[in-house]
Write a structure and sequence with these properties.
Layout: H1 10-39, H2 49-78, H3 85-89, H4 102-125
Helix pairs in contact: 1-2, 2-4
C-alpha cells in the first residue's frame, strides 16, 4: 500500500488512523471522568466539569479530522479506482463505483454524539438550582417526650 501511489495516499491513511486513535483515547478519558464525576466531586480541572468539556471537545475534534482526511482520500484516490495492481493490469476498473461505508458514517455519528454530550453537560451544569435552607426545629412540649396511654 505504501508503494502503490494509485491506490491510496499513504500519509492521509496514516493520519486518519492516528486521528481515530486519538479520538478513542479522548472518548475513553471522557467516559472515565464522567463516571468519576458521578461518584465524587473532583477538585481538579482535568477531572471535573471543565475536563469533561475538554475531553469531549478533543474527541469530537479528532473525529472531525478523521472524517475530513478520509473525505480527501476518497475524492482524490478511492473514487477513481480501488482495485489492486494486478486487476488494474488486466484493464479492470471500479471508477465511480465507490461509496462511503458504514465505518465512515459511524465516525460521523461519533461527532454528533460528542456534540450532544457537550450540550448535555452544559444543560446539566448551568441550570439554576434552588438551595434548600434547613428548617429550624420547632420546640414543642411533646418533642422528645414519650407519651404513654
Amino acid at each position: 500500500m505504501r508503494t502503490d501511489r494509485k491506490f491510496l495516499l499513504y500519509g492521509l491513511w496514516v493520519a486518519a488512523i492516528a486521528c481515530l486513535a486519538g479520538a478513542l483515547l479522548f472518548a475513553g478519558l471522557s467516559a472515565v471522568f464522567a463516571v468519576v464525576n458521578t461518584a465524587t466531586t473532583p477538585i481538579g480541572t482535568a477531572t471535573g466539569v471543565p475536563g469533561l468539556y475538554l475531553w469531549n471537545s478533543l474527541a469530537m475534534l479528532f473525529n472531525l479530522c478523521a472524517v475530513g482526511l478520509w473525505a480527501v482520500q476518497f475524492y482524490q484516490k478511492l473514487q477513481q479506482n480501488v482495485l489492486s495492481q494486478e486487476d488494474r493490469d488486466n484493464q479492470w476498473s471500479s471508477a465511480n463505483m465507490a461509496h462511503y461505508g458504514y465505518s465512515f458514517w459511524f465516525v460521523v455519528g461519533a461527532v454528533v454524539v460528542h456534540f450532544f454530550n457537550i450540550t448535555a453537560i452544559y444543560i446539566g451544569t448551568h441550570r439554576t438550582r434552588e438551595k434548600k435552607t434547613p428548617q429550624p426545629v420547632i420546640e414543642e412540649k411533646s418533642n422528645g417526650a414519650i407519651m404513654l396511654y
